[in-house]
Amino acid sequence: MDRRRFITSVVAAAGVAGPFAGVACAAAQGGVKPVRGYGPLRPVRDLRDGKVRLHLPDGFKYRSFSVAGDKFTDGSIVPGRHDGMAAFAGPKGSAVLIRNHEVNGPVGAFGDKDRAYDPMAGGGTSTLRVTRYGEVINSAPSLNGTMMNCSGGPMVWRAWVSCEETVNGPDVADDFSGGDNSKLTEKHGYIFEVPVGRAATARPIRSAGRFPHESAAFDPSSGAIYLTEDNFAFPSGFYRYLPPKHPVLAGRLLDGGRLQMLAVKGAKRKDLSLGQRPGAAYATTWVDIDDPDPAFRGRPTNDEVVQAVGRQGREEGAAIFARLEGAVHHQGTIYFVSTQGGATATGDTAPDGFGDGRGQVWAYETWSGRLKLVYESPRSSVLDLPDNVTASKRGTLVLCEDGDGDNYLRGVTKAGEIFDFSRLEPISGDPGAEFAGSTFGPGGHTLYVNIQARQGMSIAIWGPWQRGPF
Q1: Count of helices and strands (H, E) across the chain
Q2: Which of 196, 214, 252, 436 has the smallest number of CB atoms closer than 10 Å to its CB?
Q3: What is the torsion angle, in degrees rounded to the nearest 10, for the CA atoms of residue 314, residue 230, residue 169 and residue 98?
Q4: Is residue 70 part of a domain?
Q5: What is the CA radius of gyration of the chain?
């Protein structure tokens, strides 16, 4: 299908309701009980080395691969902090994975430093071709010299957009990590395009803003890129970037477009980080960000710079969210996660950072402009600080937790019901280990996911998907 016919077909489908169109969000007040899903979880040994890393339902198997500290097939070293990821169809039934590495600080670029955006920055992406059973065919760095590459999103023209969750740079005072920003050679806080099959150009899309980017979700009918902001200590916003030319027609994502921030009609600076009523829905509009890549005098604090873009939107009435993280496009709807949104449940303590809840899932209908609450966690034992999100072919969401205790992969069905699919076995000496980067491979045979840990790794999971909601 040529590009113009592709755009025509997706515009015709844009009015199809998303999979959660009928959900009245009974879960917002704890009214929906967890469903069986695929059944109880049990410890399962990793087919790579026999260790128990995951608890899964009966019939499911997995293999870990591409562990931090190992070598890529090109001989360079695999960095850590595996995070957001997408799977694309590869030759002979394989999958091509593009994977983020959320490395902070001026620690030096991995891979070929001559290709690095900033040779002092240690984040970026790697590209791997793997079988549907997690066997690596080839692997190599694909974007290096970026920083805190958290999540991003797959693009239909066979590319991944990687997002920097930071505003570090030589023009900004040091952040919470204690790294010396004066050692950096470039400004950070941008999005980068990484094409399938070749290395990235390492050119930032500056018009899409300089702020702590988290995820990117592409709407093929309009060509807009929807962006989330994970501003840990301050309010976050939901954005869209309107490129100067439809990316499918251009064959890539162009700089020079317009950045906007979502607002609720008739309610300036509506605080959506708070607990919501069942069935909450809002009519929305968009406000322009006049200066998406501001310049600064002197060397301002990191706190000042991290709010510079979002403050512009809120001054024009944009809505307030708590830590927006994962986002995914499915059937004309953008689903995105507010990690600390919602009301603090009885018995739960409020988490650190901005927002007191244990998580919300929102749905933005691109054709109507309506924003709806899909799910709000009633308590941490049901859903605890969701992060990355993806959707199955059936429209069930997969949520990666970044909670305080045991971390799970949870499913949210089209009826708004939640279930447990996998529990991460605690890692000795690494209580911060979490799931990240869930993505279904070609044909839906395999769910690929990352364990973000001190010794991060990727995992391929397969089994009787037809038995449950995925």
Answers
A1: 4, 26
A2: 252
A3: -130
A4: no
A5: 20
